[in-house]
User: Which sequence fits this backbone?
């Protein structure tokens, strides 16, 4: 399947870097400078800003600030184009003097740079439009005026705070963590833009009261439980139960999201910035099969690097009311993958090689060709790294053992009183 990115239409939005603003550079050929008519006619043109026009240095703003009256800036220029709407928040005011450029702020005067509160945030749509109370569903909120600094966007669905995992000025991507099982046939979505200097203060907010249903009876898909999973990083079959009004064709992808081993404690799925990095490192759960009633799913995890993994499923648009794909997660760690060495026998062997070592541990794949065992030997000019391979020729997933045969490791610098060249210092 390689279409999971399309099915989850804008799963993770590309965030603008904080502090990047179109107005940070004097207008070039592709942008009209204040004081210049857009159509090239005289200065009476309706679109012309007067010389000395006050411009808010908002992120993503395109010369849409108020005319220097010190009041709160309004929402863009009213033409309905979201690309000209400044981000909500507190923004410093700068003055552009045509044709010389932006006036410099003189900090020696002791007064703070002038600033205005920009109020432009609004919500246009929310996807998906049906959620299950069990939660752990990715939700996309389209609109204008959002902050490019994800931490300044506070979003709630039905009164439940939803961590923002990705953002830009027109799209917020959040995780709905569930609401404890309560039905909400018409849930309200609220977004607030916080003051960077005081996170307890909201500079602007917007409410969306359209059709968003949170209900156990809704068709919204969810992962009911992970029934069984491989015990470690060796990989194997993972089985889960699904809920919602689904068909076997609705499942487009199954995958695992890694967090550092032990993170989450098996109690909570990844949220916030941690989710974005986990999503980028996700591992596909291969060859997924769905039961005839679409209530069960099985897939092969394959060998996994050491980490804690959450299980997720991507569904086709039909599973989300025809408005685009939807992605949901199990609410707890599904696999604790650990590759671990517990015992190596025998403890001694010949520098001439040929010693068979039996290594006991867990997380070993059954395919010996996928294993590499390295042994530390004395550093010398012959073995400058102090490492040689031990050739693996057997592995057993059931017993957690592997076997390898050592290679000769005579050192060219060996002598009668230093046969292993152990006295040769590393360079």
Assistant:
């Amino acid at each position: 399947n390689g279409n999971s990115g399309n099915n989850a239409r804008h799963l993770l939005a590309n965030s603008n870097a904080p502090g990047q603003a179109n107005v940070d550079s004097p207008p070039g050929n592709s942008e009209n400078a204040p004081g210049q008519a857009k159509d090239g006619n005289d200065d009476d043109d309706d679109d012309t800003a007067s010389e000395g026009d006050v411009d808010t240095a908002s992120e993503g703003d395109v010369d849409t600030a108020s005319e220097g009256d010190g009041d709160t800036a309004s929402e863009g220029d009213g033409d309905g184009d979201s690309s000209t709407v400044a981000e909500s928040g507190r923004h410093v005011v700068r003055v552009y003097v045509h044709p010389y450029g932006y006036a410099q702020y003189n900090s020696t005067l002791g007064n703070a740079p002038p600033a205005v509160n920009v109020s432009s945030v609004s919500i246009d749509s929310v996807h998906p439009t049906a959620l299950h109370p069990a939660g752990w569903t990715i939700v996309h909120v389209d609109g204008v005026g959002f902050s490019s600094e994800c931490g300044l966007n506070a979003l709630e669905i039905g009164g439940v705070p939803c961590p923002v995992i990705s953002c830009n000025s027109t799209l917020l991507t959040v995780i709905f963590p569930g609401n404890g099982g309560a039905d909400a046939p018409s849930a309200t979505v609220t977004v607030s833009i916080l003051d960077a200097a005081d996170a307890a203060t909201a500079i602007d907010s917007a409410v969306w009261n359209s059709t968003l249903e949170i209900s156990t009876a809704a068709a919204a898909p969810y992962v009911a439980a992970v029934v069984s999973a491989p015990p470690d990083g060796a990989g194997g079959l993972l089985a889960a139960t699904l809920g919602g009004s689904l068909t076997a064709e609705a499942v487009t992808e199954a995958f695992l999201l890694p967090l550092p081993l032990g993170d989450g404690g098996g109690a909570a799925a990844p949220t916030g910035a941690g989710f974005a990095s986990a999503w980028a490192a996700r591992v596909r759960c291969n060859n997924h099969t769905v039961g005839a009633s679409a209530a069960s799913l099985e897939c092969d995890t394959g060998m996994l690097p050491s980490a804690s993994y959450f299980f997720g499923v991507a569904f086709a648009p039909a599973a989300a009311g025809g408005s685009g794909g939807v992605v949901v997660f199990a609410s707890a760690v599904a696999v604790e993958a650990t590759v671990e060495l517990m015992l190596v026998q025998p403890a001694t062997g010949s520098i001439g090689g040929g010693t068979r070592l039996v290594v006991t541990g867990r997380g070993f794949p059954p395919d010996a060709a996928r294993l590499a065992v390295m042994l530390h030997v004395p550093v010398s000019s012959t073995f400058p790294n102090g490492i040689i391979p031990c050739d693996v020729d057997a592995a057993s997933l059931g017993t957690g053992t592997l076997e390898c045969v050592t290679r000769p490791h005579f050192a060219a610098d060996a002598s009668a009183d230093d046969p292993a060249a152990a006295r040769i210092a590393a360079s």
Summary: The chain has three domains: 16-220, 222-337, 340-406. The helical segments are 4-7, 272-280.
